[in-house]
Amino acid sequence: MRQPVSTRVAMLVGIAGASAVLLGAFGAHALRGVLDGRGMELWHTAVNYHAWHALALVMTAALGRGRSGRTALFAFGTGIVLFSGSLYALALGAPRWVGIITPLGGLAFVLGWLALGWTLRWRNE
């Protein structure tokens, strides 16, 4: 039987998914012709990782358990903010040093996937 998720987790999942859609649409419509090719490429990469990891949050909320499940939720959320957020900022003209943040978000994504794998490992035992 499926366990209910907390309101905080449900809001995180909803906000992550909705913001991925909104930022994708914003980039496709409002930023077309405003950003150069490199800016649009950065924006597209940010939206792509944002959307995939919003789905990872859904999977974690549904299947994650215990400390590793909470770690995965935190890591995926942090990864979206740091990785995608820094790419959004760079696309909009933030200073190049903001790019230092991007790999930290990538590491958070990796940690999230490892934690999700760990929680799934113990799920059937």
TrEMBL record:
Pfam families: DUF423. It is found in: Membrane. Its main location: membrane. The chain crosses the membrane at residues 46-64, 71-91, 97-120. GO terms for cellular component: membrane. Keywords: Membrane, Transmembrane, Transmembrane helix. The keyword Repeat does not apply. InterPro entries: DUF423. It is a multi-pass membrane protein. PANTHER family: TRANSMEMBRANE PROTEIN 256. Belongs to the UPF0382 family. This is DUF423 domain-containing protein.
